[in-house]
Amino acid sequence: MTIQQKIEQLREELNLHTHNYYVLDNATISDFDFDMLLKKLEKLEQENPEFFDSNSPTQRVGGEVTKNFNTIFHKNRMYSLSNSYSKEDLLDWEKRIHKLLGTDDLEYTCELKFDGASINLTYENNQFVKAVTRGDGFKGDDVTTNIKTIRSIPLSLKSDFVSTFEIRGEIILPLDGFEKMNKQRLAEGEEEYKNPRNTASGSLKLQDSAEVAKRPLDCLLYQVVTSERKYKTHFESLESARKTGFKIPQTILLVKSINQVFDFVNKWDSKRHQLPYETDGVVIKVNNLQQQEELGYTAKSPRWAIAYKFKAEQVSTVLKEITYQVGRTGAITPVANLAPVQLAGTVVKRASLHNADQIEKLNIRIGDTVFVEKGGEIIPKIIEVDFMKRPENSEPTIYASHCPECQTELIRTKGDAKHYCPNEFGCAPQITGRIQHYISRKAMDIDGLGGETVDLLRKEGLIQNYADLYDLKVEQILPLERMAEKSAENMITGIQKSKKIPFEKVLFALGIRFVGETVAKKLAKYFKSIDNLMTASFEELINVDEIGDRIAQSIIDFSSDLRNIQLINRLKVAGIQLEVSQEDLENQTDKLQGKIVVVSGVFYQLSRNELKKAIEDNGGKVSSSISKKTNFIVAGDNMGPTKLIKAQDLGVEIISEQDFIDKIS
Ligand code: AMP
Ligand code: ZN
Fold this sequence. Notes:
By secondary structure, the chain is an alpha+beta fold. 37% of the residues lie in helices and 18% in strands. The protein folds into five domains: 3-61, Orthogonal Bundle (Helix Hairpins); 83-309, D-amino Acid Aminotransferase, Chain A, domain 1, CATH 3.30.470; 428-500, DNA polymerase, domain 1, CATH 1.10.150.20; 503-585, DNA polymerase, domain 1 (Orthogonal Bundle); 596-664, BRCT domain (Rossmann fold).
């Protein structure tokens, strides 16, 4: 066997196991053996780079980072669906179709409507080419690198399906995977994700594809789009796509009458909560493709399909108690503790009450019977109080006046919906929360130290703030429960490593209220050091692009607190990056100040990301689409043809990579 054959054989074998596991849910190899095969392939590919294939199983782990996702026009528009909410709506729809087609001899497919993010996959010559989000239906974002990490999507097809086609489906996050992610988030001291759908669609736009690879995303497909007339019906095309390796849900049903559609709807309205993922309705489609074509489209949606939306399930239960949670910034969230009740497949015990205004609006009291609904969010909502059932002796709810954790009197500033506990430095959840934020991935990214350990360290009195981390010694943490020598050392190493984290991330890590990632970047670039920032006046602060009164005031408050000044001094002594590094400074100019720049094509001297960073470092803004506001385009080889035409139409200047380098140096 030649090396090439060996490589191909390994790829095929791995693809088969992946398909069995992720599509058929039927493992045919142990994880260990799979990894061994994958390693073998990796090694062969490394030694023989001439056989590189971007669709090889080795390319699924991610790693490529995308700063700005390219906009791509869909070859075929991605329509929405018209909605229906009752059987009458469905009967009306059927009547319209009968009339338009002049026949009542029809077949329908019934499918579940999956609640995720729609995606359009393109295949050419049996190879996966690209994945684009629905966007506005005409154009979406190119999320190919991220989508490739989803194992149930085949990258290279085995059989003779259609050779060039698009296939559409929904990227979803199964419920158990979602719960696992949230458990981990909590353990890391981060806020839970609200619902699987937003988390799924957010995942597609993560910049680091290796991060996407870690998420348990799945892809369910529901439509084949091709100009080849190989299949007569929608059902047939999906069955065939399934044989080719795509994950087509088994729940699809072919029916011959609208009554059978009703049966399908009824069955799944109650059974849907047993499914491993969320659905919000049923999609009914005319099965015959010729008839679909005849029916065509309205301005927004196909006439040959309609969605039937399930009603959100509601139950009533009793409000037992209102408790108050304290977040990292001291924000207070009231929580309704309910008599446990079964709702949409889970037992509900708690619901968020958001803030004092919400409590007032609902006019809710302890002992009240309330209606609870699970909408788009995993945390159920209280819809209203059943006043008929209000107990006679009930008392109006009085909002907490003091912090449940530290008994400090709560404050509420004008225009703020939330109450706050102002005891920043003495309130346990705030102390822990701030350190957990400091060590989190987007901030100081400290390996070897997790959210639970932070809590433990604080309880043991070993740390009170983030500066204390740098004084920790192995001997101090070893006696802690479940702390092995190796993990203690890892923790200390991780903490020491954070001294290399650049200033903009440090600034975010400090946890100044309203200073998120983007704001921290802006401030770091403008002020260049913590000293400049902390001595800046209010006027100076609001002068910075996109910094408003609220952020400015928060920075002033932070900077004038002696305790913060002391903390910053300790971080300085510890060697934390509290100013922009010399190297970064040298690369920063105002040469492109206020310029909006589009990057397109393939580059040789700089990577795409380096190019974008260079634009930002020199004061410019990178935009992904060309408009009248674009100042110039840096074009590499193979600039996209639509971009080229648009640039010429608008008369936007196009410069080469070399021109750009000359411009900034
Ligand atoms: P809407 O966003 O309410 O207009 O509904 C249209 C969306 O439903 C499509 O863009 C798909 O993302 C989604 N969808 C989920 N399941 C299906 C399905 N089985 N067939 C067609 N569309 C579906
Ligand atoms: Zn408190």
